[in-house]
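Hello Y.,

Per our agreement to keep a running log of every chain we model this quarter, I'm adding this entry. I've kept the format consistent with earlier entries: sequence first, then predicted structure.
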Amino acid sequence: MTILFSKKFWVASFMTIFLMALDYWAWDEVVSLSVKGLPAWIYYFVILQLILVLMIYTFSKYYWGNKEDK
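Predicted structure for the entry above:
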């Protein structure tokens, strides 16, 4: 659990999410429709945003936390 209190861990985690959101490896792909008629990249970004929400929740709970709790 000590990794959750590390500034370097959170910087690296949020930087990774940011770099994954750039999606530079799929810029030249032809858009094709997948499940329910939506392009595959929409599902990629929905999942990425859910991961970001979980990271922000964990960050605010463990790294910020209340000083009274520690």
